[in-house]
Design goal:
- The chain has helices spanning about 1-35, 275-295, and strands at about 40-45, 45-50, 65, 75, 80, 85, 90, 95-100, 105, 110, 115, 120, 125-130, 130-135, 140, 145, 150-155, 160, 170, 175, 180-185, 190-195, 200, 205, 210, 215, 220-225, 230, 235, 240, 245, 250-255, 260, 265-270, 275.
- It is α/β, with parallel strands linked by helices.
- Strand 17 and strand 18 (about 160) form a beta hairpin.
């Protein structure tokens, strides 16, 4: 009998704790909902946020609205064509321009004053700042364009100081950029990608780089700052190009090559440092024969 009474008392106590816990949850959820955005009156067919707080850039959250075609968010000062699709979770910041039939994927951030040409498709979780994108481009998932380049100097006291990175990145028409590629903004000239160029995944393009039209950059290519590349240039996988180097038009570089000085004649190149392909093949053959003779 005593055991039964004890069990009943314990079960009653547990039920009381559950009720108290549920009340605490309801109270916290109602208080958190009061802090979040609420949907206000519709303006030109879009829902406006009604939070009076401001972000770090001094832009009021109240100035952002819901885009009907896709459910994304845009600032009221942005100029967006009615045919553009902005998916849920994407955001377009102030004074940006989005052209006709542009598709912006979820999680993408279009920074202030960015221009996107018509018929361009942008994937998920893309970050665009300080840049212009041409017509009919394809920007795959995770691409970052327009962030600061890697530029520092040491002052007289030995401190590492950042060089100003104030210019833009400009992407031409019909350009395709693979997933997780990064293209830095310029410091003394705009970073430029020419029309019809194709860039693979995981490519790094440094500040002030100028790439001509119809170039092809394969995966994991790394181009240091202030490089100039002509038209119809192909860089194989994992090619590295040192800073301030120029490559003439119609050059092809074999995979894992490294360009350490200017290439002034069209043709095929390979090796580290990159040399004409015939010379590189002779080097490889000689090295192979030498190593073969050393084997006992």
């Amino acid at each position: 009998m005593a055991v039964t009474v004890r069990k009943l008392a314990i079960s009653h106590l547990v039920s009381l704790k559950k009720k108290a816990y549920i009340q605490v949850l309801r109270g916290s959820s109602s208080s958190s909902s009061r802090c979040s955005f609420s949907v206000g009156a519709c303006q030109t067919g879009s829902s406006a946020y009604s939070d009076k707080s401001e972000d770090g850039g001094g832009v009021s959250h109240q100035e952002f609205q819901r885009w009907n075609n896709g459910g994304g968010t845009f600032h009221k000062s942005a100029c967006i064509d009615p045919t553009a699709l902005i998916e849920m979770g994407a955001i377009v910041h102030p004074k940006s321009v989005v052209g006709a039939y542009v598709h912006i994927g979820s999680g993408t951030v279009i920074g202030p004053s960015v221009t996107i040409g018509q018929l361009t498709k942008i994937g998920y979780n893309v970050a665009l700042t300080n840049c212009t994108i041409g017509d009919s481009c394809v920007i795959h998932n995770g691409v970052c364009i327009g962030q600061d380049g890697f530029g520092f100097f040491v002052d007289e006291k030995g401190n590492m100081l950042k060089k100003p990175q104030m210019l833009n990145a400009r992407i031409g028409n019909h350009v395709e950029i693979g997933a997780n590629t990064c293209i830095d903004r310029g410091s003394w000239r705009d970073t430029l990608i020419g029309d019809h160029s194709k860039i693979d995944n995981l490519v790094q393009i440094g500040h002030n780089v100028v790439i001509g039209r119809s170039c092809m950059l394969c995966g994991q290519v790394g181009i240091a700052g202030s490089v100039t590349i002509g038209d119809y240039v192909t860089l194989g996988g994992r090619v590295a190009v040192r800073d301030h180097v120029s490559i003439v038009s119609k050059v092809r570089l074999a995979a894992i090559s490294c360009v350490t000085k200017d290439i002034k004649e069209p043709g095929d190149y390979g090796g580290f440092p990159a040399v004409p392909i015939c010379e590189w093949r002779r080097q490889v053959a000689t090295q192979f024969q030498t190593s073969k003779k050393r084997v006992p």
